Amino acid sequence: MTPQASLPMVPHMGDPHDQTWISDHGSPRGARLAGMRAAIGTPALVLGASYLGFGAFVHQAGFDLWQGLGSTTLGWALPGQIALVEIFAVGGSLIAAAIAVGLANARLLPMVLTLMPILRHDDPERKPRLAHYLSAHFIALTGWANAMQRCPDMVPSQRLPYFLGFTTVIWLSTVIATAIGFHLVSVLPAPVTLGLVFLNPLYFMLLFVADLARRERGVALVIGAVLGPLLHLVSPDWGLLATGLIGGTLAYLIVEQGRR
After folding, report:
1. Any residues with CB less than 8 A from the CB of 137 and at least 6 apart, and which?
2. Is there a contact between 128 and 20 (Cβ–Cβ < 8 Å)?
3. How far apart are alpha carbons 60 and 63 in whole angstroms?
4. 3-state helix, strand, coil in the chain (%, to 5)
5. What is the Rg, in whole angstroms, of the alpha carbon atoms belonging to the chain?
6. How far separated are the first and last CA of the chain, in Å rounded?
7. Which pLDDT band holds residue 14 (cuts at 50, 70, 90)?
8. DSSP label of 153
9. In terms of Cα–Cα distance, which of 79, 72, 135 is closest to 105?
10. Are residues 168 and 134 in contact, defined by beta-carbon separation less than 8 angstroms?
11. Burial of 174 (0-12, 13-18, 19+ CB in 10 A)
12. Which of 62, 78, 41, 42 has the alpha carbon at shortest distance from 178?
C-alpha cells in the first residue's frame, strides 16, 4: 500500500485488517526504522539532556556510576529515579523508598492501559505475548505521547515495531547521558543540573500543545494548566496530585457530556 498523507482511515465491514491506513511503512522492519528515525533528534536530545542532570545528581548524592546506570536501565522513569536517589541519600528506609517510587510512577499505569490495546491491535485474540510485557517497560512520557499520536493511524502489525524502534533509541540515549552526566558533575552547577532534569516535562507539555485540536486532550490540558498553579498555592505537597485527579475527572465529564 502506498502512504497517502491526506487519506482517511476507511474500515471495511469484514476483516479488521482490511483497512486503508494513513501511515504505512511497508513492513514491520520499515516501521521499526521509521520509529528510530523519529527518535533521533529532539526526543533523544531532550530526554538525554534530562538524564545528564540525573547522572550529575547521582554523583552529587554519593552513589557510584553503576548504581546510576542500573537505575536508568531497569527503572527508566525519571521522577521515580530522582525520588529513589533522594530518599536513600538522606538515609531513608527501603519501605519509604518503595512508597515514594510507587506514587511517583503511578502515572505510568494509565499510560499502559491506554497504549497497550493500540499496540496489541494486530492480535485479534489478545493472546499474551512476551514482547508485549517487555514493551511495557518502555512506556514513559515521551514514547507514550509519540505513540498515541502516530500509532493509531498505522497498519496494526507495524505499531509495536514502530514503538520499540522509537523507545529503544531514546532509552539508549538516556543510559549514555547518565554516564556522561555522572562524569561532568564538576562542570555542571547544581541549578543547571535541576534545570536539565525539568526539560523533559516541558517538552512533554509542548508536545501536547500541538494536539489541542483533539478535544478530549485539549480540554484536559487547559484545565490542568489552570488548576495546577492554583492548587499548588493551596497545597505544594498535594497540589499536583489533586490537579491530576480533579482536572482529569472534569475533562472526562465535559467530553462525555459533549458526546451525549
Report:
1. 76
2. no
3. 8
4. 70, 0, 25
5. 20
6. 37
7. very low
8. G
9. 79
10. no
11. buried
12. 78
104, 83 contact by CB (below 8 A):
yes
In 18-122, where do the E strands start and end? 19-20
Smallest Cα–Cα separation from 143: which of 200, 218, 69, 192? 200
Paired sense of beta strands 10-11 and 19-20, if any: antiparallel
pLDDT, tens digit, 9 for 90 and up, residues 103-148: 888 888 888 888 988 888 755 555 567 778 888 888 888 888 889 8
| Cβ 148 vs Cβ 115: under 8 Å | yes
The cell for 141 is: 512520557
> What letter does residue 7 receive in the DSSP assignment?
P
Cα–Cα distance for residue pair 236/229, rounded to 1 Å? 9
Residue 7 has pLDDT above 60, yes or no: no
What is the distance between the alpha carbons of residues 226 and 33, in angstroms, rounded to a whole number? 39
201-237, pLDDT tens digit by residue?
A: 777 666 666 666 666 667 877 888 888 889 888 888 7
Place of cell 483497512: 19
Query: Which residues lie below 8 Å from residue 245, measured CB to CB, with a gap of 6+?
Result: none
- How many CA atoms lie less than 13 Å away from 151 in the CB half-sphere? 29
Distance separating alpha carbons of residues 229 and 243, to the nearest angstrom: 9
Answer yes or no: are the C-beta atoms of 56 and 181 closer than 8 Å.
Answer: yes
With both helix axes pointing from N to C terminus, report the angle between 141-150 and 42-60 in degrees, rounded to the nearest 10: 160
Cell of 45: 536530545
